[in-house]
Write a structure and sequence with these properties.
The protein has 197 residues and is an alpha+beta fold. The chain is built from 1 helix and 10 strands; from the N terminus they run αββββββββββ. The strands form 2 sheets. The protein has a 6-stranded antiparallel beta sheet with strand order 1-2-3-6-7-8, with no helix packed on it. It has a 4-stranded antiparallel beta sheet with strand order 5-4-10-9, with no helix packed on it.
Length: 197
């Protein structure tokens, strides 16, 4: 009888040890799978700091299209800080901002012939210079040359209490043959009217 009790006790101990071993092996397999899974998972794709964007509008027969990269303020002083006053800026990030129109436009009493143009500005506290330049396909202002300017005029910036985190352009229709183009960033907005010629 004692032999049977002893044999039963040994069998129970062997069973317990083998169960513990199996649980341990299962844990190791799960851990290895998790490690392998984390290595093959794609890293999170970060949002770009200056997303590429565009705005466009149809005004009468005119199609106006603005293409730009939209930087964020990100707790920086923009005008008079990140962007020095009285220096040419490509009015966006990375590649120069460009504007394309399929119709001639009258801006500030001058004609902008239909086509595609680099859009540049020279910020200042009192007034900004707005520039349309023949060279629309350039990185930043690296290749900017004032001899390629086709139209220059001055605008007065508006300072707002509203805060614009990302640079934004708008083309608004005011009549069947006219509209406005605006650019807002931080607390500054510039806007100018145009007419379809």
């Amino acid at each position: 009888m004692n032999k049977y009790i002893l044999l039963s006790a040994v069998l129970i101990i062997i069973l317990i040890v083998s169960c513990k071993q199996e649980v341990k092996e299962n844990k190791e397999v799960v851990t290895k799978e998790l490690e392998t899974g984390s290595q093959t998972a794609e890293p999170d794709k970060k949002k770009p700091l200056s997303p590429h964007t565009e705005t466009m509008a149809m005004i009468g027969d005119a199609h106006i299209h603005i293409n730009y990269s939209s930087p964020g303020v990100r707790n920086r002083i923009i005008f008079g800080g990140l962007l020095a006053y009285d220096q040419v800026w490509q009015a966006g990030a990375h590649m120069a901002t460009w504007l394309e129109t399929n119709k001639d436009l009258t801006i500030d009493g001058k004609v902008l012939i239909s086509g595609k143009y680099g859009f540049f500005v020279i910020p200042n506290k009192e007034e900004w210079t707005v520039i349309f330049n023949r060279n629309w396909n350039q990185h930043g202002k690296d290749d900017y040359d004032s001899s390629d300017d086709v139209l220059r005029f001055k605008v007065t910036p508006k300072i707002s209490e509203e805060f614009q985190e990302h640079l934004e352009y708008k083309v608004k229709k005011t009549t069947e043959t006219s509209g406005t183009i605006s650019m807002s960033w931080e607390k500054v907005t510039i806007e100018f009217p145009f007419e379809i010629k």
